[in-house]
Amino acid sequence: MTQVYDRIALIGLGLIASSMYWAIKRAGLAGEVTGYARSEGTRDTARNIGLCDRVCDTAREAVEGADLVVLCVPVGAMEQVAQDIAPVLKAGATVSDVGSVKRSVISAVAPHLPDNVHFVPAHPLAGTEHSGPESGFAELYDNRWCIIVPAGGDTDPEAVTRLRSLWEGMGANVDQMDADHHDLVLAVTSHAPHLIAYTMVGVADDLRRVTDSEVIKYSAAGFRDFTRIAASDPTMWRDVFLTNKDATLEILGRFTEELFALQRAIRTGDGDHLFDYFTHTRAIRRGIIEAGQDTDAPDFGRGVPKT
Q1: What DSSP string describes 156-184?
Q2: Max Cα-Cα span within the chain
Q3: What does the angle CA 152 – CA 188 – CA 23 come to, to the nearest 5 degrees?
Q4: What is the pTM of this model?
C-alpha cells in the first residue's frame, strides 16, 4: 500500500488504537505513529510490546507535527483531550476519532479545534470484548465497516478522501453518513443490543433460584454471547448511553413494544405469530452472513473444545 500520512498520532492506546497501529504498520500507511495514554502503566505496556514507534508522556507531545490525530478515548473524555491538544495541532492536520456516537462528539470537540485543522469523525464497526493495548491485532478491521461522518458541510473533501484511504488500507469497507443517522443506526445495531445483554446477564445474576454455578455450567450459546457482549468496557459503554440517549431510548421503546407482542403471543398460544416473527428475523441473520459480516459455521465458528 501507499503511505497515506507522514505521521499519525493515536490518543488512547486500547483495543482500537492498538489494532490501528498494527494494521497501519502491516500496510505501510504512515511514516511514523506516535501514541499517548493517560495511564503511566498503559504507556509502559505499550513500550514493552512495541506498540507505536514512539510513546509520549503527554498528549501534546504526541500530536506535535502529526498529519492525522485520532482520538481513541471514551467519548466522555474527548472534549477535554481536544481542549488540551488544540494549541499544538499542526496547520492543515486532520483530527478524527473512533467513537461509537457522533452528534455529541462533534458538539464536544469541534468548538475547540482551530480553523486551520480539519475535523473528520469516524467510527470503525469492529471490536471484541477485550480492552487494553495488548488486545489489539492487525486483522481487526479486515472486511469490517468504518463509517466516516464529516462534521459539517464545509469539510475539506481531500481530508475525507485521505482518511477513507487510511481505513481502506487497514482492510475496512468505508461508508459515509450524517451524524444523526449514524447515531440512530448504531442505536439499533449496537447500543440497544449491548444494553439488552447487560440486562439479561444482570437478570441471571439476580435470579437467586438459579445458582451462579448453574449459570456458568449450563450456559447455552445464546447466554454465552450475552456474557461476551456484557464483558465490554464499562467506561466506554456508560459514555455511549449517556451521549446517545435519545436514539437509544427510541429503539428501546420499539424493542419493548415488540417484546410485549411476543409475550402476548406466548401467553395466548399464538404459534402462527411466533413462527412468522422468527422466520422474518431468521432472514435478517442470513442477510448478515451473505454480506460477509459473520460466518455460517456451527456455533459461530467457535472451535470445538477438546475432550
Answers
A1: -HHHHHHHHHHHHHTT-EEEE--HHHHHH
A2: 67
A3: 65
A4: 0.79
Burial class (CB in 10 A: 0-12, 13-18, 19+), 267: exposed
Please work out, in degrees rounded to the nearest 5, the angle formed at the alpha carbon of residue 253 by the alpha carbons of 105 and 189. 50
| Alpha helix positions (H), the chain | 15-27, 40-48, 59-63, 78-85, 103-109, 157-169, 179-186, 192-206, 212-217, 221-230, 234-243, 245-268, 271-290
pLDDT tops 60 at residue 297? no
Q: Are 248 and 187 in contact (CB under 8 A)?
A: yes
Q: What is the mean pLDDT of the chain?
A: 89
Could you give the domains of the chain? 5-177 (3.40.50.720), 181-269 (1.10.3660.10)
Helix (H) or strand (E) run with residue 10 in it = strand 5-11
- Are 121 and 97 within 8 A, CB to CB? yes
Q: Which three cell numbers stand for residue 91?
A: 496547520
Residues 6+ apart with CB under 8 A from 259: none
Instruction: Reduce the DSSP state of residue 61 to 3 states and report it.
Output: helix
Could you read off the pLDDT of 194-239 as tens digits, one per residue?
Answer: 888 888 888 877 775 666 677 767 666 677 778 777 887 888 888 8
What share of the chain has pLDDT > 70, as a percent? 90
How is 235-265 classified by DSSP, letter by letter?
HHHHHHHHHSHHHHHHHHHHHHHHHHHHHHH
Kind and range of the H or E run holding 122: strand 122-124
Please give the backbone phi and psi of residue 125, each rounded to the nearest 5 degrees, phi first: -90, 70
* pLDDT tens, residue by residue, 58-87: 999 999 999 999 999 999 999 999 999 999
Q: Are residues 24 and 33 in contact, defined by beta-carbon separation less than 8 angstroms?
A: yes
